[in-house]
Amino acid sequence: MKQLLEHFSWKPSDTLLSLGCASAWWEVNLLLHQPCQKIILIDPNTQLLTLEAVQESIDYFEKKQSLSFSTQVQISHSPLSQTPITPHSIDGIFVFNAWHELAPLEEILPALKRIVKLGGWILLEEELSVGHRRIHEGCAKELYFQDEIDLQMASIDFSLSQKLVKEKQTFYLKYMNP
């Protein structure tokens, strides 16, 4: 997380969104240290993403960090393409270790283009296939090569602006909407 906060920033007035966030563990911890005005949490799993689960994450990190969580939280279990979000209203999007699970991309990519502001960003924390096609240990889905993700993002006119190594084959990839 420290690496994320050192290299990627947002403003307190920003509206952010997270796709495939489960109980928002990563998002809560980040936003406790660097708040935004509002975060929209989207995950189809109604058992993982609940107000109670998010509140448990908030309570845990507030106690652990001795900080107060101030970001407004909105939850949606609908697909991104069906979530009512005003066009060009999102400053940034997080996808933590979930890009390989998102489907169908032919619906998700245009929805991302529609909701992200000009100058906005999409930040992926993603384990990648490097050298050969790999399978994600947790969900058994195929992992993308970076050039595949670059092409997906290019299809909606987003381009890679930053890349950091998190671990051996896990990277932070930030794509910008020019």
Describe the structure.
The structure is a single chain. This protein has 178 residues and is an alpha/beta fold. The protein is built from five helices and seven strands, in the order αβαβαββαβαββ. It has helices spanning 2-7, 25-33, 51-65, 105-115, 146-154; strands at residues 15-19, 38-42, 72-76, 90-96, 116-127, 159-167, 170-176. α2 crosses α3. The longest helix has 15 residues, at 51-65. The protein starts with a helix and ends with a strand. The mean pLDDT is 94.
What is the structure about, briefly put?
Helix content is 28%, strand content 28%.
> What is the number of strand segments?
7
Average predicted confidence as pLDDT:
94
Overall shape: it is globular
Fraction of helical residues: 25-40%
Low-confidence spans:
none
- Given the structure, what is the number of helices? 5
How does the major sheet shape up?
A: 7 strands, mixed
Derived from helix and strand composition plus strand pairing, the structural class reads: alpha/beta
Quaternary structure classification = single chain
Report strand order across the widest sheet. Answer: 3-2-1-4-5-7-6
Radius of gyration over all CA atoms, rounded: 16 Å
β-strand amount: 25-35%
Report how far the terminal alpha carbons are from each other: 26 Å
- H/E element string? HEHEHEEHEHEE
